[in-house]
Design a protein that fits this description.
This protein is an alpha+beta fold. It is built from eight helices and five strands; from the N terminus they run H-H-H-H-E-E-E-E-E-H-H-H-H. Strand 4 (209-223) and strand 5 (230-243) form a beta hairpin.
Length: 437
């Protein structure tokens, strides 16, 4: 019996291969076309070489693969089991005494393999690919700084500056911009806002500066120390130079949380926890010193003079100010701590989604009794949309510290997995809406 079950398992897996390859290529093509239509026009008009454009798409392919594998597996599962059910092969297997769990098991084994691959890919390949894409985007920005500008969208790629343009036209060595707004916060002592009707933007690679020649506008300048020191003046022509960071061939590009492996993020967690413990220890020490100083004065004198009371009050104010500042620093560190934990849990939850989608897709294929690509893709889209809404929503809530990082990343798997288990339980009790005789 076991030998025949093995043959059946191999037969079921063969039914997954074709739909998986087709769905995977279709999904990858869909995401690539989305990037192509979004960015290719700007790249070609900016004069970038074909090699740089190819590298841009190639490096973004890694993140696409991470999403495409679970989704393609869900589509292939619904198609494979839907086809087997519509051809009455599932009924034949049941008639031979093979349970539904045995029929689904090869798909789960297949999902386990893809889960391991997705984990390895997301931990070893994806961080380096994201770093390469980030470095390439930085170099493209240095060559064509206006490439990242979009009409009507505030751009904050340059530190301490925010740029908004209503229209932009790229030329070979410059860009013509209309409706320019510049928020300059490079000086900590003052805030400068610049508005202009139109202007010309050029990049000087030798100086590493972005030069902007603006026409018909006004400058608003506010002294942050003396709020009454407000200045406003009009101009017909105004030149603004913005210094850009120098290119170090990627060595100056720091790894963000999406460019780090599990080991790197775990190191960040440990150093962050150590730093938070040091801050809390300093806060405890500050409170102890304040209390000790107060009791020393009380023990020496039964009654304090006015200057001594004023001194105690001043020490209390300084300590409260210090504690508030450190508590705010702790709050920010906890937010960063949660963000890193979210990325760590995501490294595990996305690979596990391969198994979860099999649990949901296999019984759904039984109930649908059809194997069409449109039906499989439609139901896959519903489950994938539910999954990603929960995942993205959970991530946002975790960043705001509304829920914990674990629940933020695992709630989607638990909910979709629970739906799959309920569908499997109903395989022998076909009361589902999807069941067709």
């Amino acid at each position: 019996m076991d030998f025949y079950v093995f043959i059946i398992w191999r037969y079921i897996i063969r039914h997954h291969v074709g739909p998986f390859i087709f769905a995977f290529m279709l999904i990858v093509l869909f995401f690539l076309l989305n990037i192509l239509f979004r960015d290719l026009g700007r790249f070609l008009s900016s004069g970038l070489s074909v090699w740089i454009i190819f590298r841009f798409f190639y490096l973004n392919l890694a993140s696409i693969i991470t999403l495409a594998v679970p989704m393609a597996l869900l589509i292939s599962t619904i198609m494979a089991f839907g086809r087997l059910t519509s051809d009455f092969e599932i009924d034949a297997m049941r008639a031979c005494g093979i349970s539904d769990i045995y029929i689904i098991t090869p798909a789960l084994i297949l999902a386990l393999g893809f889960s391991g691959f997705t984990f390895w890919f997301g931990n070893s390949v994806l961080p380096d690919a994201n770093l390469g894409a980030k470095t390439l985007a930085y170099r493209i920005f240095q060559k064509r700084p206006t490439l990242s500008l979009e009409s009507g969208v505030m751009n904050r790629d340059i530190e301490n500056f925010a740029l908004l343009v209503q229209d932009i036209r790229d030329k070979s060595d410059s860009s013509i911009v209309q409706g320019v707004t510049i928020l300059d916060n490079s000086d900590s002592q003052k805030s400068v806002n610049i508005y202009a009707e139109h202007g010309v933007v050029r990049y000087d690679p030798s100086a590493g500066r972005l030069g902007m020649t603006l026409f018909n506008g006004e400058v608003h300048e506010l002294d942050l120390k003396k709020l009454e020191g407000y200045k406003k003046y009009h101009f017909e022509k105004y030149k603004k130079m913005i210094a850009l960071p120098q290119d170090r061939r990627g060595h100056g590009i720091s790894r963000g949380r999406r460019e780090k492996s599990l080991r790197m993020m775990q190191g960040d967690i440990q150093s962050n926890e150590k730093e938070m413990q040091q801050i809390m220890q300093k806060m405890r020490t500050a409170v102890k010193k304040l209390v000790a100083a107060y009791y020393d004065q009380v023990e020496k004198k039964s009654r304090l003079s006015y200057p001594e009371i004023a001194s105690v009050r001043q020490n209390l104010k300084r300590t409260i100010f210090y504690l508030r500042r450190e508590l705010e620093a702790l709050k920010q560190m906890r937010i960063v701590h949660n963000i890193v934990l979210v990325e760590i849990y995501k490294k595990y939850s996305i690979p596990v989604s391969c198994i979860v989608f099999i649990l949901a897709g296999a019984p759904l294929g039984f109930f649908l009794r059809k194997s069409g690509m449109a039906i499989a893709a439609g139901w896959s889209f519903v489950f994938f949309l539910l999954y990603w809404c929960l995942l993205i929503g959970g991530e946002e809530l975790a960043h705001k510290m509304v829920i914990g990082p674990f629940w933020a990343m695992w709630l989607a798997n638990l909910l979709v997995g629970a739906i799959g288990v309920i569908l499997i339980v109903h395989l022998h009790h076909p009361v589902s809406y999807f069941y067709r005789k």
